[in-house]
Design brief:
The chain is mostly helical. The protein has helices spanning 2-8, 10-28, 35-54, 72-98, 105-122, 126-144, 151-162; strands spanning 61-63, 68-70. A two-stranded antiparallel ribbon has the order 1-2. The longest helix has 27 residues, at 72-98.
Amino acid sequence: MIATDLATVLPELLLAGYAMAALMYGVFTGKDETARSLMWMTALVMAALALWIATVPQGRTLAFFESFVDDGFARFAKVVILLSAAAVLVTSEAFLSRQRILRFEYPVLITLSVVGMMIMVSANDLIVLYMGLELQSLALYVIASFQRDSARSTEAGLKYFML
C-alpha cells in the first residue's frame, strides 16, 4: 500500500527533492553566480516533469487513505502549472538581471510554490488542501518581498502575510 501511495505522489516528491538539492547547490557554490544556470535548470526540470506527467497512463488513483487523488484533471492541471512556472522562470530571468536582484533563491522559491500548487490540485481532503495552500503561500510571501532594499517590496510581503 505504501509503495502505491508513494508512486502516486512521485512527481511532487521529485520536485521537492529537486528544490532541496538546488538550495544546497546554491548555498555551497558561488551563490548568485549560479543563479542564471539554476533558473534554466529548474525550467528544464519542470518542463521534463510536465512531459512525464502528461505521458502517464490514464486512470484514477487514490493515495493516503483517499486524501490524495491522481486523475485526468489533476494531471492536466499539474502540466499547466509546471509549464507556466517554467515560462515564468525563463521570462523573469532578464527582468531580475536588469533589477540586479537575480539570486539563486528565486527558482527554489518558485519550485516550492509549484509543489504546493500541485498538492492543492490533487487534494481530496481539506487538510491536504491546507498543507498545499500553506506551502504555496509561504514561498510566495518571500517572493513578494524579494527585493530586500525596496521599502515597497518589504511592505508588499508584510501585507501579503497579514492578509
